[in-house]
């Protein structure tokens, strides 16, 4: 035990932060994240407004007459997320790779423990709670996404050859399947899909055999048949979500959230109704979870197609920047880390926006940096911190190698 502690302290000293690394901080990436996050606070405020007969004339009047609880809390979570981002930047990403299996095991332990908690939202045993009213929750599977990205990145970067055969894929599937099974048992299908998406994209970028990829996709399609039968033969609200997605008008009572969200999206028009407007869906409470999973509907209603398009453009710049930065990483592990974070955010963005406008079934997946919630904000900021970590240290290594090479040439 003493030897392990000594080794850990040595690793911490070797991987501690050097202030000179700040010159390689990727400000474009950070500013995009910050703008989206602050825009999210505004949309959360809009989602939590109460009904008015006329729009407030000044910002101060708006703040004095409307509840600011959720917006204020989101600002606190944003601050906590920024601290988490700085904390994960402090130590070099090689250290996280060294302890990847430790993060993996800790994630599994938390997922096992949380299964013993009392069911909360949606009947899921996915949350730790605290406080007198037990309204404050922590979802370990959210932060566990970062642990799994580190574990997946280490597993794929350690391979000498890409995944080319089924025998190569089986150990990785088992490695991914253990936490995935625990998340499905909660049951939290949305988060499970995120794990699957990150894993699948990492398999794809590893240079896998396309025949193997097609075979796996075919197996997934075939599995849909028994899953569909099971869901159709059981009283399962997830089956209802699929039926609502296919034909919401046939289930008006169950599809009220989806129908109202799509109506709010269209009612915003080109420029939107504004943050506090009479008769808005946000102020009348017609959309449940409008400050969390359905925040995009409030964005469209308040800021119209212009605001929604600006948000989508910011997301495109964010993801494009990350995938570009992955090509500049100093090693395969760093590249996989960035790809893992980008994959996680991509799935969240596509799934959330698509479910709000009716292109995909509702899964309860939040919109990154926009939806209210501490666990998701901290998870996303930890992911951005990992990306920054790789970028800063990769650029530092590149500059040092360039200096060494120029010295050798002169000699």
Write structural notes for this entry:
By secondary structure, this protein is an all-alpha fold. It has one domain (26-395). 69% of the residues lie in helices and 1% in strands. It is built from 16 helices and two strands. It has helices at residues 2-14, 27-47, 59-65, 69-90, 93-98, 100-114, 140-157, 166-184, 189-205, 210-233, 237-246, 256-267, 281-284, 295-326, 332-356, 374-410; strands at 128-130, 136-138. It has a two-stranded antiparallel sheet. Strand 1 and strand 2 (136-138) form a beta hairpin. The longest helix has 37 residues, at 374-410.
Helix and strand arrangement:
Layout: H1 2-14, H2 27-47, H3 59-65, H4 69-90, H5 93-98, H6 100-114, E1 128-130, E2 136-138, H7 140-157, H8 166-184, H9 189-205, H10 210-233, H11 237-246, H12 256-267, H13 281-284, H14 295-326, H15 332-356, H16 374-410
Helix pairs in contact: 2-4, 2-14, 4-16, 6-7, 6-8, 7-9, 7-15, 7-16, 8-9, 9-15, 12-14, 14-15, 15-16
Number of domains: 1
Across the major sheet, the strand order is 1-2
Structural class: mainly alpha
Intertermini distance: 47 Å
Q: What order do the SSEs take from the amino end to the carboxyl end, as H and E?
A: HHHHHHEEHHHHHHHHHH
Envelope shape: globular
Report on the biggest sheet: 2 strands, antiparallel
Counting DSSP E segments of at least 2 residues, the number of strands comes to 2
What fraction of the residues are assigned to beta strands by DSSP? under 5%
Average residue-wise pLDDT: 83
Low-confidence stretches: none
If helices are DSSP runs of H or I spanning 4 or more residues, what is the number of helices? Answer: 16
> Radius of gyration in whole Å, from Cα?
23 Å
* Helical percentage: 55-70%
């Amino acid at each position: 035990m003493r030897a392990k502690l000594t080794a850990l302290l040595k690793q911490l000293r070797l991987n501690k932060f050097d202030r000179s690394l700040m010159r390689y901080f990727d400000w474009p990436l950070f500013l995009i994240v910050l703008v989206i996050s602050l825009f999210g606070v505004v949309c959360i405020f809009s989602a939590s407004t109460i009904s008015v007969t006329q729009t407030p004339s000044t910002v101060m009047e708006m703040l004095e007459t409307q509840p600011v609880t959720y917006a204020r809390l989101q600002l606190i979570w944003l601050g906590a997320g920024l601290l988490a981002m700085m904390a994960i930047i402090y130590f070099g990403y090689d250290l996280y790779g060294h302890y990847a299996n430790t993060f993996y095991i800790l994630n599994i332990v938390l997922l096992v423990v949380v299964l013993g908690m009392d069911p909360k939202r949606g009947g899921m045993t996915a949350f730790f709670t605290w406080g007198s009213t037990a309204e404050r929750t922590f979802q370990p599977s959210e932060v566990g996404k970062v642990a799994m990205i580190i574990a997946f990145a280490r597993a794929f970067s350690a391979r000498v050859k890409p995944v080319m055969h089924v025998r190569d894929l089986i150990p990785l599937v088992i490695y991914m399947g253990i936490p995935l099974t625990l998340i499905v048992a909660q049951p939290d299908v949305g988060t499970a899909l995120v794990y699957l998406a990150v894993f699948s994209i990492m398999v794809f970028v590893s240079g896998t055999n396309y025949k193997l990829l097609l075979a796996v996709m075919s197996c997934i399609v075939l599995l849909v048949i028994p899953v569909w039968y099971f869901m159709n033969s059981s009283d399962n609200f997830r089956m209802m979500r699929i039926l609502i997605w296919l034909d919401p008008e046939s289930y008006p009572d169950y599809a009220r959230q989806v129908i109202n969200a799509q109506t709010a999206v269209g009612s915003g028009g080109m420029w939107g109704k504004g943050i506090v407007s009479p008769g808005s869906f946000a102020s009348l409470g017609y959309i449940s979870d409008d400050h969390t999973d359905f925040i995009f509907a409030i964005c469209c209603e308040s800021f119209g197609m212009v605001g929604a398009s600006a948000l989508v453009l910011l997301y495109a710049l964010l993801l494009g920047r990350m995938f570009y930065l992955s090509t500049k990483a100093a090693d395969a592990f760093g590249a996989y880390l960035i790809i893992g974070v980008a994959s996680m955010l991509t799935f969240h963005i596509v799934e959330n926006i698509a479910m709000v406008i009716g292109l995909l079934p509702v899964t309860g997946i939040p919109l990154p940096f926009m939806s209210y919630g501490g666990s998701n904000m901290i998870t996303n900021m930890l992911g951005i911190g990992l990306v920054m970590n790789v970028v800063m240290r990769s650029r530092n290594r590149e500059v040092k190698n360039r200096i060494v090479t120029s010295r050798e040439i002169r000699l």
